Amino acid sequence: RQEADSLFNSLKPSKDTTISIFNVSKPNIVVIMLESWTASAINSISGINNLTPGFDALVNEGLLFDSTYSSGNRTEKGLVAILSGFPAQPVTSIITEPDKTARLPALSSDLKKAGYSTAFIYGGESEFANMKSYLLMKDIETILDKNNFKTDQLNSKWGAHDGFLFDKSIEWFSNARQPFFATVMTLSSHEPYEVPMETKFKGNDETSLFKNSLNYSDLCLAEFFRKAKQQPWYKNTVFVLVADHGHEIGVNDIHFFDPVNFRIPLMIIGGALKSEFAGKRIHKIASQTDIASTLLNQLGLSSAPYKFSQNLMNPYRVPYAHFQYSDGLGFTQASNELLFDNPSGGCFYRKKNVEADSAATLRLARAYQQVIMQEYLGK
Length: 379
Hints:
The protein is α/β, with parallel strands linked by helices and about 375 residues long. It has helices at about 1-10, 45, 55-60, 75-85, 100, 105-115, 130-135, 160-175, 205-230, 290-300, 355-375; strands spanning about 30-35, 65, 70, 115-120, 140-145, 180-185, 235-245, 265, 265-270, 280, 285, 320-325, 330, 335-340, 345-350.
């Protein structure tokens, strides 16, 4: 354990400081979780598969972290990684165990204490994967889900499509007490990839259906920002656009055991973002778990309880990302990255085919994993 803690601590920044990116002290904050939005679908990040022209246009107005990785491979794991800064686990998910999630910090709880009103807005069932229990425990005051949409708006297998979701979100923002903190979770790009519009990509194969669903979700996102910019609260609001997890369906024929499947979009945008950061990119590796610490540091609030979350605006941070799939782990740094499969006991992927480098990276990844599980077990 002493060695694991030492390796884990080697990833901490040498100095604790931050670069301010907000132009108001307490902006409204909206986290938009984009279902299955893989970086491989976004031309402005990957340079391929121009499926999201709306997002690509918004990149000119936002601060893009173009080397970001999801913590896990499921929506509920992404939710905890974003709000609590706590990494995903293989095999299981901490959100299913309320006694464990009760110990976690959460952005919603900290912001409520700071005077924010809080909400979660989703077109599907908020009870899915025990999410509602977690959200209520973490001081989410308002939960809007499929029960808050009209019957004729429930036109997806999962509930209300993203167009209706974003309209409902604008309605809530316009009537909410400011400052507000809201998490909006999309669903149209979840299988079975239905879209309420004429499809752009022909074919009923899974890849074509997925591409169409992303394209539809992107159109809804672009329309949402067009409408939001006309609202009086927009100038005091920042939006965090981030995927819940990546996707391995062959948008560019990548192998399942490739860390690029965990690469996702992350962008901060909105009227409360300082103009000098519009259109800027940060290339350093980042994790979904880093959102909590980054936002809290911008607000001058303590991020100390978020042990696994780094402040992305600290120029001294150590760039890395740790991620999990069903029964294995991945770890990426600028110098090396790998994906370790637990059942087989071997690396299915590694950036550097040098045994010494891979061994050192794997030891660091295992140490990080051990610290996660110690926290998970409450030891």
